[in-house]
């Protein structure tokens, strides 16, 4: 069972090598690593070319942003299972993909996800926030729940049946996708209660209050467009979950 791992990057010279080596060091032996570069202007492509033997497909061209690049990766993927590992991320250990593949081989899961930790950009061992996805429950998206997208793997047929990222969403296309696949179409999911991915702090959404507000407006639209109820406690629940994640991150980091 081939697993396609899609890495999206733009001007990621500081971190792309870590991501490539993280995928290359996985114990699972049937991985197709696809890198979609948005025509980087730094040394990103030089680093990628240095590891050409470890990468199945490399595309470097202008795109319409991260979600457009991810859709390109989905189109190019030949694996039965598709996952994403962005240029700021690494797998938590060498057996992550093997663990995921075993789940798909031994269950009827169409999608699988686990936990994620946010770490310092210059210290991958320093945990700041611990995102515990938890099991999906009906209408969970309406209450602010969302599995950590970088830990999400799905069968390729899911994307063929229900589509990829909706580019009309600039900041919440990952939420919309997961709400559509899990909340609306009820694909069968499996939750792995362990940290699968380490993500460096950063990201477009959290760079400004304006972006946070825009993201929440998009999330509201995503819920409505997928026929999911919208709770009046949505924002309060999200804030509560975020605080819990930072507290859990402190505890996890001290463990």
Topology:
Blueprint: E1 3-9, H1 16-24, E2 31-37, H2 44-50, E3 57-60, H3 66-76, E4 81-84, E5 89-91, H4 96-106, E6 111-120, E7 123-131, E8 153-155, H5 156-162, H6 173-184, E9 189-200, H7 209-225, H8 234-254
Parallel strand pairs: 1-2, 1-4, 2-3, 6-9
Antiparallel strand pairs: 4-8, 5-9, 6-7, 6-8
Number of strands: 9
Overall helicity:
25-40%
Strand content: 15-25%
Number of helices: 8
* Morphology call: globular
Spatial gap, N to C terminus: 35 Å
**Total number of domains:** 2
The string of secondary-structure elements, in order, is EHEHEHEEHEEEHHEHH
Which stretches of 5+ consecutive residues score pLDDT under 50?
Answer: none
Class based on secondary structure composition and strand pairing: alpha/beta
Q: Biggest β-sheet: count, sense, barrel? A: 9 strands, mixed
From the alpha-carbon coordinates, what is the Rg to the nearest angstrom? 17 Å
The residue-averaged pLDDT reads 91
């Amino acid at each position: 069972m081939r697993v396609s791992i899609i890495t999206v990057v733009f001007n990621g010279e500081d971190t792309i090598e870590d991501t490539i080596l993280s995928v290359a060091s996985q114990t699972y032996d049937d991985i197709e690593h696809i890198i979609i570069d948005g025509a980087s202007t730094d040394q990103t492509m030089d680093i990628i070319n240095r590891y050409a033997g470890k990468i199945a497909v490399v595309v470097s061209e202008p795109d319409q942003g991260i979600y457009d690049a991810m859709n390109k990766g989905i189109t190019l993927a030949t694996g039965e299972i598709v996952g994403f590992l962005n240029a700021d991320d690494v797998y938590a250990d060498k057996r992550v993909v093997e663990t995921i593949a075993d789940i798909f081989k031994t269950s009827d899961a169409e999608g699988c996800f686990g936990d994620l930790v946010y770490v310092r950009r210059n210290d991958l061992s320093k945990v700041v926030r611990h995102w515990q996805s938890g099991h999906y429950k009906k209408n969970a998206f309406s209450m602010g729940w969302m599995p950590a997208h970088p830990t999400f793997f799905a069968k390729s047929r899911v994307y063929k049946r229900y589509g990829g990222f909706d580019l009309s969403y600039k900041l919440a296309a990952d939420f919309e996708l997961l709400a559509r696949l899990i909340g609306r179409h009820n694909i069968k999911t499996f939750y792995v209660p362990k940290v699968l991915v380490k993500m460096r702090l950063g990201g477009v959404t959290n760079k400004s209050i304006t972006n946070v507000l825009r993201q929440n407006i998009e999330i509201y639209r995503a819920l409505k467009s997928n026929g999911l109820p919208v709770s009046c406690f949505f924002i309060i629940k999200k804030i509560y979950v975020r605080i819990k994640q930072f507290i859990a991150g402190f505890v996890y980091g001290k463990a």
